[in-house]
UniProtKB/TrEMBL annotation:
Domain Major facilitator superfamily (MFS) profile residue range list: 12-426
Protein name, entry field: MFS transporter
Main location: membrane
Cellular compartments annotated: Cell membrane
Gene3D superfamilies: MFS general substrate transporter like domains
Amino acid sequence: MAKTTTIPKLQVFIIIWLGQIISLFGSGLTGFALGVWVYQQTASTTLLGLVSLFTALPGILLSPIAGAFVDRAERRWIMILSSCGGGLATFFLALLSLADKLNVWHIYIGMSVISVCSTLQYLAASAAITLLVPKRHLGRASGMVQIGEASARVFAPALAGLLVLNLHIQGVLLIDFASYVFAIVTLLFIQFPEVKNTIEDRAKKASLLEETIYGWTYILNHPGLLALLLFFALGNFVLGMGTVLVTPMLLAFTSPAVLGNVLSTGGSGMFIGSIVMSVWGGPKKRVYGMFCFGLLQGVCIILLGLRPSIPLIAVAAFGVFFSVPIITACSQAIWQSKVAPEIQGRVFAVRRMIAWSSFPLAYLLAGPLADYVFEPLLASDGLLANSVGRIVGVGHGRGIGLLFIVLGIITVIVTISGYLYKPLRTVEKEMPNLILTK
């Protein structure tokens, strides 16, 4: 085994970040390519949707247990072993494809394994960053981490489309496997700081079940963090609804090519927002950054549905996704600075499970709300055709536009309510900083 090297903490963070950004990009290639393969083989939207479900749900459900493991073990080795697990799952899918024996159910199993490994990876990395990055730079660090996610969203689909044509699905999977190997190699040559126990680690000698429950009780005992979590979960719910609704709304009056351009514009907003956050680091009072960009996001969501205008929708989509990394980074920095490092695995696991659970809920509700409630309201003879319809228009897709407006208004109301709720507004002031770096 390779010997670890003593490297300054910030350099260790840079090495971890580089390895993870390559791995995230590889996973983005695989996600797009597998989705294309499943749809080409089955022509079933339902089976395609199940790929997303198996990619997200296992990790969400196992988050609390994963968090307890992260706090019990050395986080560097958790990252190494989880990368090995994800890489092996990807490699087996590639072998099945090469042997022409790949089936849809193989993909479901493989993505479930990758989902659990990704959750362990995320929790271990988030907790490790707290020990490596000074408090004043946590916002920048979160912005840098999101550059990888934004890159996967913006560039991976286009590149994966070209690779599938030239290298086929097995070629894309092998590239992803290589990205896992790269991430593992970067981790083998570094060492993480030791976690020092504090009085906060009340569950240190507890059973695994008690440690799993501890993450829940910790958040419930801190109203500011609970409000922060609910604020973020509601934001994810709105974004999840928007992800489902934007495609049918645009295809009601434009072409798939224009849809792709609008989605790319939104993705570029996320990429630029991540770069801005990595350079800027966010405001001194990070919770105010969440409120300000939450309001901007709400206004942009309203604009998405206001009129069937491609320039307006493209600008609004850019604004929505530009706000995402800034809100996320500000929230992440607050959690990292307020939760003691030795319990971050458990606490962050519960936080991740609740925040991410809003996405499946949004996916389930978006279609019925659009098809059976809002679209009929703005049909040519709908109940709101002669009132609201005079502003937003009537016909196919305009009911979804109205739903976007409602979601934007909800976002604005939630943001203002969050500001008025004192435990959330003062969470940075009322809770002490518990990170070890200065």
